[in-house]
Amino acid sequence: MIDRDMNDSLIEKLTGDLHPVRALRFHEGLTWIALAACATLAISYFWLDIREDLASGVFPPMFLITQGLFLILGLAAATTTVTMASPQVGNRHDGWKWALAMASLLPLVGAIAAISAYYAGSDYEEGHDSFCFIHGLVLGLLTAAPLIIWLRRGAPASPARAGLLTGIAAGCIGVFAYGFFCAYDNIIHVGIGHSMVIFVSAALGRLVIPRLIRW
Amino acid sequence: MIADEASLSRLMALSQKGDRQAYSVLLKECSRWLQRYFSRRIPPHQLDDLVQETLMSMHKKLGSHDPSRPVLPWLAAIARYRWVDHLRKIYRAEEVALAEDVAEAGHEDEVTARLSLDRLFTHLPPAQAQVIEMVKIEGQSIAEAAKHSGQSEPLVKVNIHRGLKKLAALIEKAQ
C-alpha cells in the first residue's frame, strides 16, 4: 500500500508550486504551423527570385502536382505532431502514413526515370540538386522551431515518432516554399533532389529532436 | 470512491487556472486512481515511487491537457509512459509477489478497462509479453525466465528489448 505521509507531502509540495498554465489547444498549434509556413514563404520571396513562369501567371501541371503532394504531406505530418503534444489513450496518429505513401511516388518515379534515362543515354542536368537541398533544409528550420517548442510544452508519448514527424513536416514545408523558386520541373530533379530534403530532414528529426523533447 | 470524468474535468480546468484547492483535490483523486491503475502491473514496493513519479510528470505537463478532451485518457497516457520508462530502468529486481488484495480489482468500469495496462500486453506477441511479465514485473532473473518460458537466454533478452520498444509505441494506441 502506498505511503500516505510521503504522498500527502508530495501533493502539498506540488499544490504549493502550482501556477496558472496555458493549456495546449489544437487550433493554437495549427495557427503556429500556418504562421511558420507563411513566414517561410515570405522569407524565401525576399531572398530568392520567383520562377519566371509563375511570375507571368503560368502554372505548369508538374509543378502543381509535386507542390501539392509535398504540401499535403507537410500538413499531415505537422498536424499529427501538434496532436502528439497532448497525449491521450485512444489517439491514433496514422493519417500521415497515407500522405507519405502518396508523396513517395515522386522519388519512386524519379528513380525509374533516372534509370531509364541512364540506359537510354539521355543527359540529366545535375548541378542544381545541392542548391535546392540546402535551401529546402534551411527553410525547413522555420517550421521545425515552433513544432519543437510546441512539443516541449506538451508531453509527447512517442518522442521518437514526434521527432520523425517534425523532420518530415519541416522538410516538406521547406521544399514546398523553395519549389516556387526552383526553375526545374524535371521529375528526376524534383522526385529525387527535392525528396532528398525531406528524407534528410526526417532522419535529422528522428535522431536529434527526441533528446530535446523527452520528459 | 474515485471522482467521475466530469468532476475531474472541472477540477482540471480550475487547476490549469491556478486554483490550488481544486488542484489538491485533483492530485489526491489522481493518486488514488494511479494506485489502482498500477497495482497489478508493478511490484508493491515500487508502487509508491511510480505513482509519485507520475504525479510529478502530471504536474510538470499540466498544460498538455486539452480542456476540450477527457482527463482520464490523458492521465492514462502519462501513466503508461512513466510505466514503460520504469520497466526499461529495471533490469533485475528481487522476486516479489504481486498484490493480491487490490481493492476493487476485477470491478473496473469500462473506461478504466479500456485504458488499462493489460490492454498494452494484448498487443504484444505472447513470447514477448510472457518474458516481460516474468523479468520486469515479477522480478525473475533472465535465467529463471528462460527456464520457465522455454526460451533461450539470448532470446529472452531480445524479446524483452523488442517488447519494451513495442510497448513504447503503443502507449496511446492500445485500448
What does this structure look like?
The complex is a heterodimer of chains A (215) and B (175). Chain A is mostly helical. Chain A has one domain (25-213). Helices cover 75% and strands 0% of the residues of chain A. Chain A has nine helices and no strands. The longest helix of chain A has 27 residues, at 187-213. Chain A starts with a helix and ends with a helix. Chain B is mainly α. Chain B has one domain (5-169). Chain B is 67% helix and 0% strand. Residues 92-108 of chain B have low confidence and may be disordered. Chain A binds chain B through residues 1-3, 6-7, 10-12, 14-26, 85-93, 153-155, 157-158, 161, 215, and chain B through 15-18, 20, 23-24, 27-28, 31, 35, 44, 47-48, 51-52, 55-57, 59-70, 73-74, 76-78, 80-81, 114-115, 168-169, 171-175.
Biggest interface, chains and residue tallies: A-B, 37 and 47 residues
Number of strand segments of chain B: 0
Beginning-to-end CA distance, first to last residue of chain A: 27 Å
Low-confidence stretches of chain A: none
Domain module count of chain B: 1
Number of helices of chain A: 9
Helix content of chain B: 55-70%
The largest β sheet of chain A comes out as: none
Question: Helices and strands of chain B, in N-to-C order?
Answer: HHHHHHHHH
Rounded mean pLDDT score of chain B: 83
- Indicate the proportion of strand residues of chain A: under 5%
Report the structural category of chain B: mainly alpha
Instruction: Kindly report the average pLDDT value of chain A.
Output: 91
